[in-house]
Amino acid sequence: MSYEAVIGLEVHAQLLTESKIFCSCSTKFGALPNSHVCPVCMGMPGVLPVLNKKVVEFALKMALATHCRINTYSVFARKNYFYPDLPKGYQISQYEHPLAEEGWVEIEVNGYKKQIGIIRIHMEEDAGKLMHDPHKPISYVDFNRTGVPLIEIVSKPDIRTPEEGVAYLKKLRSILRYLEICDGNMEEGSFRCDANISLRLVNTEKFGVRTELKNMNSFKHVQRALTYEIERQRSILEQGGKVIQETRLWDENKGITRSMRGKEEAHDYRYFPDPDLMPVVIDKDWIEEIRKTLPELPDVKKQRFKQVYGLPEYDAEVLTSEKDLAEYFERVVKWGSEAKLASNWVMSEVLRKLNEEKREIQECPVKPKDLAELLQLVQKGTISGKIAKTVFEEMYASGKPASQIVKEKGLIQITDQAVLQEIAQKIIESYPKEVEQYKAGKEKLLGFFVGQMMKQTKGKANPQLVNKIFKELLQK
User: Fold this and answer.
1) Where is the Asn/Gln amidotransferase domain (predicted)?
2) How many CB atoms lie within 10 A of CB 1?
3) For a disulfide at 90, which of 73, 78, 142, 474, Cβ 3.0-4.6 Å?
4) Where are the domains of the chain?
5) Which of 311, 150, 189, 216 lies closest to 7, judged by CA?
6) pTM, full prediction
7) Which residues contact 122 (CB under 8 A, 6 or more apart)?
8) Which CATH code is given to the segment(s) 417-475?
9) Which residue, 236, 239, 240, 256, is CA-closest to 248?
């Protein structure tokens, strides 16, 4: 029997507001434990929550960017469960009346495009954080995160493979970062997801029994965890067993999922409207005002890069994956670089150096204007592409402009045909055996002769001119 996976993802994105969703405490990450708390987020008796308007604005931006239907009337509800990091004994969320519903995003995997539906986007508060002592059977709780604003984005069960799941998460993260409403940091927990996975027979409609996966804090972990869980369930079903509905944790060290607890249903949380919060009624004019503030989003920018700059699909996809990266590329082109050359260099040399040092594009020491100057030297034939890479390394390390480095080190490309012909002739005379082999049809040896020229000129010879000269001399 052949099975297919049915995957739905629940994404929690922490919003980049300065204060929490129902109080004025700071949302800043990394503060001393329990230093950003107050009676409201600690759930003290007699306190009243007040909704942060900026949270609603940010949530509306994401809803508009993902083609959702916005509900002008939504309600906050209490989600009741008891856990040490939840001081009130309930979490304020939305249930029956969420902020937005019925949206979608488009993903591309292995050359095919697919729409992934979004069931709902709603607002809620975060819980605290438990820290377990590695040496004693003791846990500590930090309530700083309690009350930090989240939006939960719940996908339809449209995802069929781990690769589609990762592509969907990357697309959501990209949109959130373009909107500047979430930093998307998975390691710090500001962008995290839970996965619901089940298997069913191919060409059937009925869903199988699902498990929920938690504790995945990177795209790599998500892909590995989904792959493992799909194979675990397939093995059970093929042996005639039954999958148990439960919540499982991903154990990265062992590369397995393990059971955490039985899976709760909605009725287990005993949702009811929060009596301390009024319904959220949104004016349609405000929605339109927010719509006008939306930036050019990744999919639209990608199409523009292909049409305006003539970039291939892959280049456009990489360059528009991050808003700041796209802006860096466009500024390089604005300062005079040819678009495809700029694309090649940003994707190879620039990103390589940044990845080595785990830095963001905003931290790149080589500014767009400086990179454009370097690439113009290549375009004009002043230096070769190979030398340009050496110059770039020094620019990155020292901050000096390309022209200064080229001048100081005497790296200007040799383009005098007479000079290069003289050197080429001497090289040919030094390698008679290779000349005979080339003439006998071993044309790959042209690269050998060009390499000898580059060695003698320390990479300064113009490669195109060198190729032309050797072809002419070797044919005589």
Assistant:
1) 327-474
2) 7
3) 78
4) 3-289, 296-409, 417-475
5) 216
6) 0.85
7) 59, 74, 93, 94, 95, 98, 99, 100, 151, 152
8) 1.10.10.410
9) 256
